[in-house]
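seq:
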Amino acid sequence: MTPERVKALSGFKLILLAVSAVALAAASLWFTRSSASPPGPLEAITIATNTVYAGSCSIFAAQDRGYFAQEGLLVTVQPHTTGKAALEATLEGKAHLGTSADIPIMFAATQGQPVAVIATIFATQSDYAIMGRKDRGISTPASLRGRRIGVTLNTSGHFVLDAFLNRQKLSMSDVTVLDFKPEELAAALVKGEVDAVATWEPYLSAIREQIHANAVMFSANGVYDATYNLSGARDYVAAHPDTVKKVLRALISGGHFCKEMPDLARGVAAKVMQTTPEKLEEFWPSYRFDVGLDQSLLLALEEETRWAAKNKLAGQGPMPNYLNYIDLNGLLAVMPTAVTVIH
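struct:
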């Protein structure tokens, strides 16, 4: 190699080192700024969520890892056992924001309640199933005909049961449906009050542990793509745009943590859910913790509205314009690429 070539390469290396140093300094500065809480008192806010559901991982992580505090928020996580209850608490003014599947949002909209969805924070196809007892003659989906099935009415579990039966050329009139809270379903099945249940994780795993080899499970994969959404009362969301942005930024960080550091995330979630990380491991790879607002949410809400009207679970009025029940402003300001809703 000629001296001129060596000299040129040495100069190039010096440039690379300088660029690297600048990049490291910038990264260090960004980390310092992003890790530090803003000056002044923290803004208190209450978020109602299902604290026994892994779909709330981004909230658990944002609380545990300090992402809320970094945004200047003092968050109280209000515990519930269903998204339906969390959304009801939010719309009743007992919490500022709340998480739920799309079904409770649909019911709120058809009842004229002023709900505003600000983001989807989780999605999965893996958490729903119908579980029956073999000793009650349940061995195939067709054998559900004439059976007593426990479900939590007006929830995603209810919708999944109906959709699953339809795929088996059965209808709700072919079974006897009994209403239970999700945490009551295991006892109802064990005691023989029902022959099968339709619900979601972690209740399915808990039920399977109790009835062991007597359990037969029919997965609802492909029947329902569940989303978990963050909503607020429309007036609150409109009056607190900066707060909404802070919450969204924290949940984006929380979602990244749940996705990119699954072992640690399962530990954080398990602590809140009062379970073990190992019990969350089976389904974790199929969980999607991305924050967004997708056009598919509107399509799902419309499909669910038709289902509710057909089954006389909601009024027979016109289809709501679900764009009026989604507030795009916060996510458009924080991460516009995450919004694919046509507007």
